[in-house]
Amino acid sequence: MILTAAEIQEVIPHRYPMLLVDRIVELEPMKRAVGIKNVTMNEHFFMGHFPERPVMPGVLILEAMAQVGGVAMLYPEEYRGKLALFGSMDRVKFRRPVTPGDQLYMVAEIIKLRGAAGKLWAEAFVEGQVVAEAEFMFALTSR
Predict the structure, then answer these.
(1) pTM score, two decimals?
(2) CA 100 distance to own-chain centroid
(3) Which residues form the active site (predicted)?
(4) Over the stretch 59-70, which tens digit does the pLDDT of each residue have?
(5) Residues catalogued as catalytic
(6) How far is it, in rounded angstroms, from Cα 19 to Cα 43?
(7) Average pLDDT for 66-90
(8) pLDDT at 129 (0 to 100)
(9) Which domains does the chain have, with CATH numbers?
(10) What angle do CA 111, 58, 44 make, to 5 degrees?
(11) How far apart, in whole angstroms, are the C-alpha atoms of residue 140 and residue 9?
(12) What b/e sequence results for 129-139 when a residue is b if at least 16 CB atoms lie within 10 Å of its CB, and e otherwise?
């Protein structure tokens, strides 16, 4: 299943400048999602991070990965309108910088969901190389 940016916004509440997923290219609701983010020089954060050597902030890479997982989690009708809030992040690693012109390819897999809490594993790649990975704990709540 493929979702456009407009369809992603029907599932998760993020909007510009915090919507960090351009397209979902694979989706198995409640299991797994694969998404892409085209990183361009026009991103607002590059004005200050860093003017002489633009690098996508690691926290925004993590947020993009979590949003891909959020689409997998919140796609079913019974979860629409919920928020998935971070409880913790573990095993976070950054492998290389992400710069303008890169395309982030993010894979997120729901490891566990029990009640209103869950765990997600996600990785981000550029040209087949891992650039970031993390395990996220989250809690579901009403908007």
Answers:
(1) 0.96
(2) 18
(3) 49
(4) 999 999 999 999
(5) 49
(6) 11
(7) 94
(8) 98
(9) 5-142 (3.10.129.10)
(10) 120
(11) 18
(12) eebbbbebbbe
